[in-house]
Amino acid sequence: MSDRKQQNTRMAHRVGVSALALFLSVTPVVSASAQTAAVAQTTPLQNRTGASTTVNTRPAAPAMVERLGQGQRQLRASLRDLQVRQSVRLQGVQGEVGIPFTSRNDEVVKSGNLVLDFAYSPSMLEDLSSITVLVNDEVVRSLPLPKSGADGTRVQIPLDPALIVPGDNRLNLRLIGHYTRDCEDPLHSSLWANISNVRSYLDLRVQRLGIAPDLQTFPAPFFDQYDVAPLKLPFVFGTAPSNGDLEAAATMASALGAMASYRGFAFPAAFNTLPDGDAVVFMTPDQMVPGLERTINGPSVAVVRHPRDPYSSLLLIMGRDAAELKQAAAGVAYSQGNLKSDFADLAGSSIPTYMPNSAPRWVNVKKVMQLGELVEATDLVGMGLQPGRLQANFRLPPDLFFWPSEGAKLKSHYRYPRGEWLDTRRSRLDLTVNGQYIRSLPIKTQNLFSSLAAEKGITSAQSTAVTTLPAYTLFGQNELGFNYDLQVADPGQCVGRLPNNVLTSIEPNSTVDFRSAHHAARMPNLALFTGGGFPFTRMPDLADTAVLVGENITAGEVEAFLQLMGQFGNSTGVPTTRLTVMRSVQPSRMADKDILVIGRSDLANHQALFEKSPVRIRERRLEVTHLTPLERFFGWFTPGGRHEADEATLAVSSASGFEGVTSFASPFTKDRHVVAVLSSQTSTLPQMTSLLPTADAKAQIRGDLVIRNGDEFKAFQVKPTKWRGDLPWWLAIGYWFSQRPVVMALAALLASIIVGFPLYYALKAHGRRRLTGKKDA
User: Fold this and answer.
1) What span, in angstroms and rounded, lies between the C-alpha atoms of 72 and 75?
2) What was the pLDDT predicted at 274?
């Protein structure tokens, strides 16, 4: 697992937004601005001269993969699919952006095109200004910038397939801009170009190579870290899968989901038939897939050619019973690179176990972490006056509770250039968490020490700042961003030069401290489920999880189940090897377990399980559970406790069916919870589960009931919430009073009465005795 984690970290570094490095010889600038959305507006296209081909339409370019047969496929990936999250702005005399992209190791590019949709300043000189396109440092085309096309131009540029190699590649877009023939300000506001990240894309036709099947290359070819397309890998079963089949499939889905976390994944299910392309096949002696029959002698794995496609492979997970099938799946998940040839016996494979909150991808909140432990040091180094966001991505246990501290403590050691050319009063370092602005750190002014340093040739300075990362900005998955904004002092017209190499960095020994946090949260809270799979991922291998599915499970339900398992694996970095799948409610086996329900909405018919649910089925109709008068009364006196049962009732009653997620306390065990992912039509379940981890969904989902309407989710808090976790009793009491100032004031008044009256009468009696001359006894 550690090797795969490191591999995924390196890949995320390659394709992350922080990899948008700037290489500017004079004034390198790349920034994302909302103003660049103008690139996407429909404006008249101008005819272009030169070798580039003009495209006459301006449709959006979503990611697309089309199989063409004979091992070929057509791949279209927009700049957004290449992790360029916002439109790109090139600025200055020489502004350049480097966009990494990859090509599978088992494919070669046969032909390709680059489509660029961009706008630029009309003030630039036509004969001196251009945008140069480079692939792997080779010039592909230099695009002139006539004034007639400044408001919006779209060009298609043929790419030489020989320039694109298997593995890592880089697309560079370089602006050469001039607004005058005399001496000029290299940072003049008229030197800019905006490139759309949505309508600019790579269009490649690739040919797959017929490489012999070999387990030593696993997870390739089923997952290739250099594939820019989302992972879509079918899971095949001989018949409708049994509980053991689903448990084994969950192990594989979670392992593959952890690998493909940066680009998305889907695991369509097929019964008794082989789809085209690569696939994972689960087989026992009584559940063979036609065309793949073989003798099974124990837990084993094999990789074979697809019988209909010599360019595709099948991964066979085999066992004589459910236990051996699960052992085979776990052995494959934990044995990447250690298997040889096309067959392996996994009878001796071992499966590790995990303690609570020990997911490898989660930050250890019991110690101070250095940023160098969370990301590669190169992710924290920038080049240029405005190098874009330097970022450190990290995951936290979703149930962290920081009160009475305001949040985590970040101690930043940051380095920046020094020199007379730098305007330190206007320059700054902006700190963000998950896109939310936290504060600006100063670039310190010149002093006596800096003058001495300049005399000795020292051209950089380092500062330190301690910042609180507010608890409300921290979630399961987080992005800590550092944005340098270095401003140049005005030396006067045609006077002075800017430095050629401007380097900035966040030192790897900068620390972030989460030790003030406790594992506690008010439950149910579906935001924790979508943000990090909580409460199930508390045990990384899902040892405390029971999954309830329908008796007659459909392919859509299986795909939704596998999608969720992939999301759990993505959150923790651990295969889900110890979950329990059930087809009926079994209170004895569900005790001491969190329960995940996936399937048709009529699963809410299980009255024993859905006793405390916000929704239930009565007379074949789904309805919101009515609150008791006591629950309604206390809801008005609890912070955030105004329950939305009436609003939820209206939303459910107005819908033709139900599609959503609900959560509630388990009726079988204290401090355990149920999350039910339900739909009236199981064919829509995969789409809903794929939307749950998206940024838009996370922003909408909360409470204990979520209803899906297209791409939108309506969230409600129907039932009361309770604390779950290890919050110390004294801290729980203090927090309870802190949220109820009126009650705290009344409690203080009552305490003063209880203490004050006896003290008053004691002092009064003492005074009376003094006046009468009697001594105290």
Assistant:
1) 10
2) 94
